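ok so heres the complex, two chains, lmk if somethin looks off
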Amino acid sequence: MSTDAESWERAAVAMALLRFAPGYLGGAIIRMRASPTRDRLMHPLKGLDLRRLHPTIADEQLFGGLDLAATLAVSHLVQSRGHFDAPCTALLVMAERCGSELGAKLAHQLDRDMGHCIIALDEGVDADEATPAALGERLPFHIAPDGRMPAGWALPAAVATRYDPTTVICSSEDLTTLTLVAAQFGIDSMRAPLLALRVARAHAAFQGRGEIDHGDLEIAVSLVFPHRATQVPQEPEAETEDATPPPPEPETEDAGNTQESLDLPEGDMLVEAIKALLPPDLLAGLVAPGTSRQSGGDGAGQKRKGNRRGRPLPSRPGRLDGQARIDLVATLRAAAPWQPIRRRQQPKARGLLIRPADIRLKRYQEQSDRLLIFTVDASGSAAMSRLNEAKGAVELLLAQAYAARDHVALVSFRGTQAEVLLPPTRSLVQTKRRLASLPGGGGTPLAVGLQTAALLAAQSRSKGLTPTIIVLTDGRANVALDGTPNRARAGEDAEQMARMIRSQGARTLVIDMSVRPQMSLRTLAGHCDGQYLALPRATAQTLTGAVSAALEA
Amino acid sequence: MKTPFPFSAIVGQNAMKQAMILTAVDPGIGGVLVFGDRGTGKSTAVRALAALLPPIKAVQSCPVNSPKAAECPEWAELGSKKLVSRPTPVIDLPLGATEDRVVGALDIERALTRGEKAFEPGLLARANRGYLYIDEVNLLEDHIVDLLLDVAQSGENVVEREGLSIRHPARFVLVGSGNPEEGELRPQLLDRFGLSVEVRSPNKVVERVEVIKRRDAFESDHDAFMTQYGAEDAKIQKTILSARKKLAKIHTPEAILHDCAVLCIALGSDGLRGELTLLRTARALAAYRGDKVLTRAHLRDIAPSALSHRLRRDPLDEAGSGTRVMRIVEEVLG
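and the predicted structre for the whole thing:
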């Protein structure tokens, strides 16, 4: 286990290297809440010309575009320069709020290899609040030091004679070593060893050497690989297996054993040496919940925020009423053809001549995406009879959801708890995976399941999705909200939760999976103002038919 | 922008490379979709493609790269009508591009300064007779996808806005790349791609090391590297050009047509698009390999990339559609 002090030490090295060669390295994710400590950590970068990027930054600011103010003033087209026209160091604030679209654009800028550097300040708390994966993938460092900053924390000093990192000599063995270590830790992306190579070069140059040595490799590996690792070499642990991100198209013979098929040279001394030198928290980091590695891996496919501004419609003429947003470009376009005529009428007027009739307003067609929250009873009683049927039904519904571009989420409840197995996503690959590995057994905490689903519904609604809750259960609620096995209380609690769902206004569909229809479930559906569907002897196919009919209704 | 990494220097990923080359032999195949993990060289390959494509002859000042002065659109005020040789356009369609930028719009500069109503061509115009590349295609906003679907179908871009009424040819090879973990692609768009390939990281350490070595050589010993692989790229380009000439003469036996139909029926792929793509791609492959007659071997080699994305998605099938296609191909073709 590494100590907190060591993690701060590594952070210091990373920051020093970033200051030394920002454009060569490309940047970092700094995952910390805003605080004086973070300011202190960031302080070394003060000397660089930092541009602040906000998650809602407009493309014109990033890549240049029409400079409206200047255009209006001189009445001919003035283009503004974007941040990325010249090599720059950008500070992406609130990176966890940045959409995958902006992430992709920034990633593209890094791919151009023009000497851009992006520091993503990530204040995310949960695994699904993280810097977009496409961007994180291209940033070598992931700085998330643990504990308090040690007193007297400072960057290592650079050696005066500076080499250019690009000219640092690297032997063929060093390249092989980095590739092998990456492979052993289950890092599939070929970018990781390349980034590590750059870090090693930068570190050698920083220390005033023109050739990579073992220490450089060690530093590079410890800074670049831990948060990308998906497995511990030769020590498969159940927990690590679970954490492995699913391959894109799971093929039975391929899935999971890609690593085994790696023809790793047995007993390679160099690899062993590097492994021995790896900081111990490389292993710890793998299983530590919350922080580092999740942001690179598991959070990838989850739609984090519903930045659904709706479908833009052509702007239309209108009056400025202080609420509508003006479409400046469209307004200019509308005014443009009239300029010569208006100029003749008002020869003394300056600038562009814009009349109220030219004003164009932006319009969007709000089209909220539907989210289907499958709330699946995985309790013992359900598992005995119908869990597999339910799984099959959900899978079939998923295929329909996919075709209709719906988002889906998966909540399961059993024992005393409910769990969000899959936050809202559109990725079939992920959903299939989670569903297949859904275990069964334990009591039926229906109330907790409903509560979790309701919470998820409320969250997703605030992100602009329209949630529908689909509960699949056999109805024998026997665990109360507080986790005690009390059938009467469990029923009351479930009823209360159902009323809460109704007050939220989420659409609900209760599917009765028990062998004989349960009156209590029909009542429950009534409480949440939802539909009730009894499927005493349902096959997956009839179930989907019934459900889609109910949803369309 | 630095010189892109040379195409021929990409290690492995043969299905992806083959698919891209075949669209260069016959642009009518209709594009390539590359889906897979991050860091597998998807965008590297597309960016490398530009250097590989044979140059086209086009009217110098034509905004849609017309091959003859007579074919230039009326709205284009041509400066020089001279025919020049220029690289095949490979146009990047950035995510979040506005509709104006994609289809073109009123030229605001000329409107403001001279009060003239003129058309400013968009990305679709620039991509005519070339390639349109969309990275992270599954994140593309729906309204842009709709636009693309329409234009890719008709081969023509029609703009009716702001008092403009403009049309121009927009025939391009659509290349998309993406990561399935970010979400799926709409079936309509999926179907629009002629070929689809899945890419994965190489699972042999030797290959991985080779990837890193070449990339490093590209960065540190740029000139020597470019000389070596530039020559390789030129060879591929030459083969593409000679394949284009041979394409029309490929003999297609009746039995092969029959095989195509049987394959598509067995797979239950929708519409005739699958069969046509299968046939076209197989022909392009034969031409590229210098064969004169289409054989089952050609079909077998390209069936997964031409058909796997046309199957109905079956979420219960864990095996993935590529495997399904291979299984049926083996049953049908033996």
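quick notes: The first strand of chain B starts at residue 32 and ends at 36. thats all i got rn
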